[in-house]
Amino acid sequence: MGVQNQNNAHVVVLPYPAQGHISPLIQFAKRLASKGVKATFATTHYTLSSITAANIAVEPISDGFDEAGFAQAKDVGLFLTSFKTNGSRTLSQLIEKFENTTSPVTCIVYDSFLPWALDVAKQHGVYGAAFYTNSAAVCNIFCRIHHGLLELPVKMEDLPLVVPGIPPMNCRDLPSFIRFPESYPAYMAMKLSQFSNLKSADWMFVNTFEALESEVVKGLTDHFPAKMIGPMVPSAYLDGRIKGDKGYGANLWKPLGEECTKWLESKPAQSVVYVSFGSMVSLTDEQMEEVAWGLKQSGMSFLWVLREAEQSKLPIGYRDSVKEKGLIVTWCNQLELLANQAIGCFVTHCGWNSTLESLSLGVPVVCLPQWADQLPDAKFLEEVWEVGVRPQEDEKGVARREEFVKCLEVVMEGERSQVIRGNAGKWKNLAREAVSEGGSSDKIIDDFVNCLISADKNGDLKGF
Ligand code: UDP
């Protein structure tokens, strides 16, 4: 970093207040700042103190639940409505705060979960860029449904679901909002609303990269002319051009960094299984038992991130019974671990950030997706990018320990392990290339920055 702001372009970046959204958007803000644009990160009151990223300004906005956000609202519909009302008002105030200063806001880069931010941007005559934090494949599916180009499967006989650019999807591959639309009406409405006002967006970005998903967006450019700018992973793990950029600079929980790296020190290369289900997934008691006993049965060393609230689900006496082989922590610096030579594979819930991080760091995976977009992400990891395997679930949807252990063995030591590791290495190089100077994502970000700078001089966005 350290690049001075050489122009008056000023971007306000607005995330949805969850770890998996704050991280990629703050990374984008840092990337813009490294290219000389002033970046302000506008985040909710209760997430404000978790932001430690350098070279960007941070400002509060309100979702109407300023003490604890969603945990306080407890209802998705209520939270989203309140965020729209209070977020629109406070984002407006933020834009006004910078009017008549030397750095008025030029553009709002908003999380696509918050389409109202585009309306606010337009009311103030500033540019609006949507930022999608999931895969292009997932964008493709929901965009088609929004535009009536894809019918939701109503019966098993309607499957597999065929979407251009995506391998045929069976029941177990479908995002849960599509498989059970009646169970998640507020989420489903939000996923579709991401495409509601795009006609007025000046730019749209997806956190993915061309080599990874170019096939997926072909044929959808009329409705979704999105640009791929990812992977938004701290620079130290990719191109290294942003000095000291080793973490996102936003942790909603305190990472137990030293404890983890110390424990890994004595472990041979590629011998440890790293297990994490991200910031939101809550395993069923049954699935928790299968994972726990499967890890023990495998005989492999493992480092398991289990959030505090999840730890009570561990079988009684489990911790003691695995203390020779396993370390269980509440939160870690995931990137630091994935980059550690001792880690041999990543047992993941396939959240999109974890997916991009495993690809960017070349770590093979065992997929245990639980809900939402994790299911199609797992399909791509296993079948398209071929960097891992997914255990078959039983009729109750539970991946049993025998299946799980078999998958661990395939990835860690089986004959296919070498092929999978080779593929993981290939994607790591391609991810690095995409964000390095002149790479596909880097060129788009440069275009964006140049447009903002020339718009700043001429009052018009050239090249959009
Ligand atoms: N993460 C972390 N420490 C942990 C577990 C997860 O820093 O112990 C980070 C991880 O690196 C990723 C994010 O949390 O960037 C999780 O995002 P993802 O999209 O994978 O899943 P979500 O939490 O949104 O389900």
Primary descriptors:
2 domains, 464 residues, six-stranded parallel sheet, 14% strand, Rossmann fold, seven-stranded parallel sheet, binds uridine-5'-diphosphate, alpha/beta
Task: Explain what the structure shows.
This protein is of the alpha/beta class and 464 residues long. It is built from 18 helices and 15 strands. α3 runs parallel beside α4, α10 crosses α16 and α16 crosses α17. It is globular.
- How many strands? 15
Report the major sheet. Answer: 7 strands, parallel
CATH fold category name of the largest domain: Rossmann fold
Q: Strand sequence of the main sheet, in spatial order?
A: 3-2-1-4-5-8-9
Specify the overall morphology: globular
Structural class: alpha/beta
| CATH architectural type of the largest domain | 3-Layer(aba) Sandwich
* Domains (count): 2
In short:
The chain has 464 residues and is an alpha/beta fold.
